[in-house]
Amino acid sequence: MTMNEQHHTISYKSLTGTWVALVALTALTVAATRLDLGGYKVLTALTIACIKAGLVIAIFMHMKYEGRLLRWLLFLALVTLAIFIGLTFFDVLYR
Amino acid sequence: MTHQPHTDNLGARLGMWLFLFTELLLFGGLFLLYAVYFKRYPHEFAVAGTQLNWVMGTANTVILLTSSLCAAMAVTAVQRGESRRAVGLIGGTILCAAGFMTIKYFEWSEKIGHGIYPGSAHLRGGVPGESVFFSLYFMTTGIHGLHVLIGCVLLAVIGFKITSGAVTAENYNLLENGALYWHLVDLIWIFIFPLYYLIL
């Protein structure tokens, strides 16, 4: 792999398929949150949002076809975000 | 001696991703504030949140997902050398963005018409949790809307560069990075939508 290697081309068909999945997940999250799920509402909505975000990053943003460097950096950024949310809640919940 | 123009495609993407990570942390901070105050004022948030129109929120979600699809297809089109189609798809993205901002305009003006905006007499006289919710709502959707406008300008410039032949199948870093920025805008909305419109 050279530094100037151009990118994988993603077909219109798979992009459209991804869009269909994203819209379906949107419909699912709206339907699920209209029901009375009690405490599971937040969990359900956020789980679906994470799946949607994963699809956008992997396919639309081409992360699926990126090398190790960008994948690890993304992982690092998400871990950083998780640490600062986690530590804040450690404070908020057990103060 | 002829000189090859220097291009570093991975470097260009790396720089863009590093910038996107800082954006992620910016919005992450706003979501963190939301989470902490939601924990403190669950009842007030639930009352305030039901005042947002989830139908408009859903419409905007589908519009943004479609705009992202157009942006991703524009990259494929340029990679395949289909410049005219790429410009059309970028036009589609900008059209979706205009639709998004129009709906946002109606949402905001309806709220402001009811005296709900940061620092308004209505919110200052109400319960503290309500004013926190709407301050966060205006702050988060405002910064997000600003990103939508910036993304539109960016993509419009890139569209003209495709027309003029400056962005081609051999050199499309600019389009790729512009599209990445646009997908980030979509990504942030994917979390704003359930947090503000659905779970409360």
Write the layout of secondary structure elements.
The complex is a heterodimer of chains A (95) and B (200).
Chain A: H1 12-34, H2 40-60, H3 68-94
Chain B: H1 9-40, H2 42-49, H3 54-79, H4 83-113, H5 121-125, H6 128-163, H7 173-198
Question: Please, could you describe this protein's structure?
Answer:
The complex is a heterodimer of chains A (95) and B (200). Chain A is mainly α and 95 residues long. Chain A is built from 3 helices and no strands. In chain A, helix 1 packs antiparallel against helix 2. The longest helix of chain A is centred in the C-terminal third of the chain and has 27 residues, at 68-94. Chain A is flat and about 50 Å long. Chain A starts with 11 loop residues before the first helix and ends with a helix. The mean pLDDT of chain A is 90. With 200 residues, chain B is mostly helical. The radius of gyration of chain B is 20 Å and the shape is elongated. The termini of chain B are far apart. The relative contact order of chain B is 0.17. The mean pLDDT of chain B is 94. At the A-B interface, helix 1, helix 2 and helix 3 of A face helix 1, helix 3 and helix 7 of B.
Number of helices of chain B: 7
> C-alpha Rg of chain B, in Å?
20 Å
Largest sheet of chain A: none
Shape field of chain A: flat
- Per DSSP E runs of 2 or more residues, the count of β-strands of chain B stands at 0
Task: Specify the helix fraction band of chain A.
Answer: over 70%
The secondary-structure element order of chain B is: HHHHHHH
- Could you name the ranges of chain B where pLDDT drops below 50 across 5 or more consecutive residues? none
Q: Which structural category fits the helices and strands of chain A? A: mainly alpha
CATH class of chain B: Mainly Alpha
* Main sheet specs of chain B: none
Unreliable runs of chain A: none
Shape of chain B: elongated
What is the count of structural domains of chain B? 1
> How big a fraction of the residues of chain B is strand?
under 5%
**Greatest contact between two chains:** A-B, 48 and 46 residues
Protein structure class of chain B: mainly alpha
